[in-house]
User: What shape does this take?
Amino acid sequence: MLSTTPADRPAAEAAISLLYESAGLSPPRFRWVSSPLIALTTGEPGLSDQLGQRWRGLDGTVPQALWSDVAADLPRAAQMPGRLFEMWVATPLLSSWSNYVQPILDAAHGRRSPLLQWNTRFGIGWIPAWSDVRYGRHPRSMRLWDALAATVRACGPWWWPDERLCIVSDPPETLLMETAGDHDEMRPHCADGPAVRFRDGWELYFWHGTRVPEWVITDPTAAAIDRESNVEVRRCAIERLGWPAYLEQAGMRLMATAPDPGNPGFDLLLYDLPRNERVLVAVNGSVERDGTRRRYGLTVPGHLDDPLAAAAWTYGLSRAQYSQLLHRT
Assistant: This one.
């Protein structure tokens, strides 16, 4: 899934053809493209605009065959070590797929992307269990799981099946990722350029797993941030620029500071904003995976003029209660 090696086209076509045959369909024609962006936008004469949305046999028969024959093994897989596998392999794989593949498909095709449903039906996080760990005891289903695993090894998740035509994209040539979460889930991130770039030049920018416009990474300014309507993009841009630089460029006035009782060694900073609002800048109480502590800002009501009272308000506590905290996360 995370490979940047060019696709093994013969292996991919052979594995995908086996899945078609298992659904009672003839092997498809293959059309190879350079990125998901053009996968569904460059058509062929006589080809329906609904490509990838009418799978029929491949949509129903193959997933049903994959899961029905192994149903008897699910109770055994639900026990140890099956539950450990789900926790440490299947769940991180699914999470990584959501963090990495889904945003790329959203960028290319919007929420209508058929590949989203296609991979969900296959249960991509369980491919290693059924094909490599081999919990399954049924030759027919194991043959299908092996074909699906071979497809992913050959071209990743970048393929769109239709009844007579299958479109397949090469993987990206550049992919910069970081680990996150309790189980080492992967997400795209790059602080100084595109995190994902395909061979035709299509590239996407990510800040700690959130897809952002190019300016957030290459030229963040307070003026651009203030024009941005998307709250998540604004948050990422401020983090990229840095809170001190953002506050200075925005001309915000520092009203007061106070030691943070829940995070010894760090201060709470309260800044004045227009529209009867204020910003409380604090440092995260927990250390990030890279050993740093994230600085963040929280909007608080304009009547609060004490940093401790503002911090207490964000937790739904009184100032006296917050001042007694031994540690906050």
Summary: Confidence is low (pLDDT under 50) at residues 45-57. The radius of gyration is 25 Å. The first strand starts at residue 29 and ends at 33. Residues 82-109 form the longest helix (28 residues).
